[in-house]
Amino acid sequence: MGLATARELAGRGYHVLAGVRSVTDADRIRARNLEPVILDVTEPEQIEAVVARIANDPMGPKLTVLINNAGIAVNAPVETLPLDAWRHQFEVNLFGHIAVTQAMLPFLLGTHGRIVNVSSLGGRIAMGTYGAYAGAKFALEAVSDALRRELAPHGVSVVVIEPGGVTTEMTGHGIERARHFLETMTDDQRRRYGALVEAIIRQAAAFTASGVPADRAALVFATAATAGRPKTRYTIGRDAAMLTRLARILPDRALDRVLAANLRPHFSAAEAH
Ligand SMILES: NC(=O)c1ccc[n+]([C@@H]2O[C@H](COP(=O)([O-])OP(=O)(O)OC[C@H]3O[C@@H](n4cnc5c(N)ncnc54)[C@H](OP(=O)(O)O)[C@@H]3O)[C@@H](O)[C@H]2O)c1
Fold first, then answer.
1. pLDDT at 138
2. Cβ atoms < 10 Å from Cβ of 195
3. Mutation test of ligand 1: which of 72, 124, 203, 220 has the most ligand atoms closer than 8 Å to its C-beta?
4. Is the dihedral of CA 197, 239, 1, 144 positive or negative?
5. What is the pLDDT of residues 86-113, one digit of tens each?
6. Which protein residue's CA is at the shortest distance from atom 18 of ligand 1?
7. N or C: less crowded end of the chain, CB within 10 Å?
């Protein structure tokens, strides 16, 4: 979604600094108005280098929009996920974005700019095995609310995007990680959670395969980044629109039943194998 958004905005004439983590990716995406910058959001020196790139711009230091989009998916039951994996999930999906936001805010205050934080349906609903991912995304939602209220008086807007299933590389990588964590479980843990993890993997794969194409998601990102009077939150896909609404109105146990019913077909498929 990041690349599709960078291309969409570059096509509309914005000069886009697009964070990538390798020179190969930088060479692959470089194009008119699309300037790759090496940026791992967990590496403070790389964040500083991007700050220096903007500060030393020959046309003057001007940044109008920051889109915090980087993310990884870590799926495992709360009991079984090693603490260092919990920390890594939060480092990338939460603290990295806070670090980049802190570094870029002086520029955004100067331009009355905008911050767009990419959360998830998982920022509103935490299904089984989503403790770490949803934990970091719920936190990003809360940080975004605080930031919006802090920055409104200073002319900087803060917008959250909540995608549901979008067809990208995330699910494939997430499934690899989920299988790795399944292998590191004890026999007891695997008896407790094995079928759940398999069902979640199948559900995620189905969800993504029938998801919104990344190019379409990029149009929502572009609206969030450029609309004159942006909404505070944009969902992407019908699943996200419906479930975020249900999460607001249903009591917890009713939502438990809806989520269990959605997962049930994937359970039986998993158990049949
Ligand atoms: N796809 C979905 O269904 C979905 C649903 C809800 C929310 N989201 C959210 O949407 C955002 C974009 O995800 P996507 O679906 O487009 O997944 P994706 O295709 O896997 O893209 C994620 C991007 O994040 C980058 N990244 C990972 N760790 C990073 C780090 N430490 N520093 C900088 N960049 C890093 C990856 O870089 P590399 O290419 O170098 O690995 C990759 O380019 C994420 O925040 C995700 O949580 C996605």
1. 98
2. 15
3. 72
4. negative
5. 999 999 999 999 999 999 999 999 999 9
6. 170
7. C
* CB contact at 8 A, 74 and 122: no
Q: Residue 204 is which amino acid? A: A
The full set of domains in the chain, from first to last, is 2-272 (3.40.50.720)
213: CB partners within 8 A, 6+ apart: 166, 167
Average pLDDT over residues 74-79: 96
What 8-state DSSP symbol labels residue 123?
A: G
**C-alpha closest to that of 21 among 53, 43, 4, 1:** 43
Distance in angstroms (rounded) separating the CA atoms of residues 102 and 90: 17
Distance 69 CA to ligand 1 centre (A): 6
Helix (H, G, I), strand (E, B) or coil at 74: coil
User: Which residues on adjacent β-strands are paired with residue 36?
Assistant: 18
The residue behind tokens 């002319």 is 155
Q: What is the pLDDT of residue 63?
A: 98
pLDDT of residue 208: 86
The residues near 92 (Cβ < 8 Å, ≥ 6 apart) are: 41, 42, 70, 71, 72, 136
Output the CA 72–ligand 1 centroid distance in Å: 5
Q: At what angle do helices 2-11 and 214-226 cross, to 10 degrees?
A: 60
Global confidence as pTM = 0.97
CA distances (Å), 55 to each of 51, 127, 147, 180, in order? 6, 42, 23, 42
Sign of the CA dihedral running 136, 211, 116, 150? negative
